[in-house]
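Intended use. Records like the one below are meant for learning the mapping from a protein sequence to its folded structure. Do not use them to infer anything beyond what is encoded.
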Amino acid sequence: MSDLSEAEFDVGARLREVRLAAGLTQRQLAERAGVPHGQISMIEQNKSSPSVASLRKILSGVPMTMGEFFEPERRHPDKVFFTPAELLDLTSRLYKAEGIEPRGRMTLRQVGDARAHNLQILHEHYEPGADTGETMLEHVAHEGGIVIAGEIEITVGDRRQILKAGDAYLFDSRLPHRFRNVSDRPAEVISACSPPYL
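Structure written out for the chain above:
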């Protein structure tokens, strides 16, 4: 899988490969991940493309990170410095698979091997309309970040706020949370999460 270009990456085939390597049926993976059985089948047949949130939820049933899903061979735990081209793109292949236009697109790029360091650092880019999804994210971790450009609406539990460049956040990731760009300009965030989630 790692030799495929981004344009050729087959999310459905990769999910099937991961599921079979774990010795799971579609139904078993769905039960472990807490998603409908039909969702696994639809993704594996490339009849449906998962959102970032739903793919992460499915991968929790294996368990596997999105970095391992998209680039299983890429592990450099001793690497210290990274150019922009060396950041691991966790999202663009999902959009290419389903043909989403740039509006509403979210790009998450990871610094190095998050699992080896028990720390995930992301450079996040949200186009106008981008949204992590109506299904709120929840996971065992703590996360925080700083908005470096634009505005982003963040919901944590029953609290919601629009953060602007220079504003920051920090919370317990077990609280349901969601990120949305409700403005007409792109937004950028630098974030960290420990232990890694995506």
